[in-house]
Amino acid sequence: MKKIIICNWKLNGNKKFIKKYIKILKKNKKLYKNNKISISPPIIYMDYTNKLIKNTNISLTSQNVDINLKGSFTGEISAKMLKKINTKYIIIGHSERRLYHKEKNNILLKKIIITKKVNITPIICIGENINDYNLKISEKICKKQLKYFIKKKGIKIFENIIIAYEPIWSIGTGKNASIKHINKINKTIRKYINNKNKKIKNKFKIIYGGSVNKNNANKIFNLKNIDGLLIGKSSININEFLKIIKNINK
Ligand code: PGA
After folding, report:
1. pTM for the whole structure
2. Which of 64, 92, 196, 239 is the most buried (most CB within 10 A)?
3. Does the Cβ of 122 fall within 6 Å of ligand 1?
């Protein structure tokens, strides 16, 4: 099974940057022939990126989606529109959206449902903050975040989705979680969902994000419990990103 690498560019990039990035990525396709690479540019460049990645094995990820498919919702993006431009994944519940846009579980659940409805795979982000980490309650916090969705919609909500475990204190900070910690939390999440119902067993994926870089990517990526990576900062610089994909396939 090919592992996934999502490049979350957040609010960075422009057409010139994207054109060059994709050109270099295409040239180096041998490097990631055994992986699935997905680019998540700012929404305004999604269609542009879609055209550039045509006939490649690079896919497109959206950083956001609205809870409505159409109508009077100024400034929003519809899952249907994203589907039309070949969006494969949508990131939901990223800690930056939870924090700066006050997205709560009820909204996130609606986003998951609408994403699945148009056959796009949701990437649901969960993770503990620094206080939780220091209190050693990371596992409890992650389970609590998942529990809300299960309580509302049943375990089936996790079928064919991706869970991104991202310790908030590690996102964009350069502070690395230890391999031991990453492994432990991922095992806990997998066990927690698998134990809820046999039918769901491993019908979901778990990826990791938080200050992944060329030095730590190999160890994290090759953990047995990890199905891929969600990379922010280090995915923006193409040379750094190429080093990451080189390293993980060593
Ligand atoms: P980072 O971001 O790699 O810059 O820590 C990860 C993310 O926000 O998903």
Report:
1. 0.97
2. 92
3. no
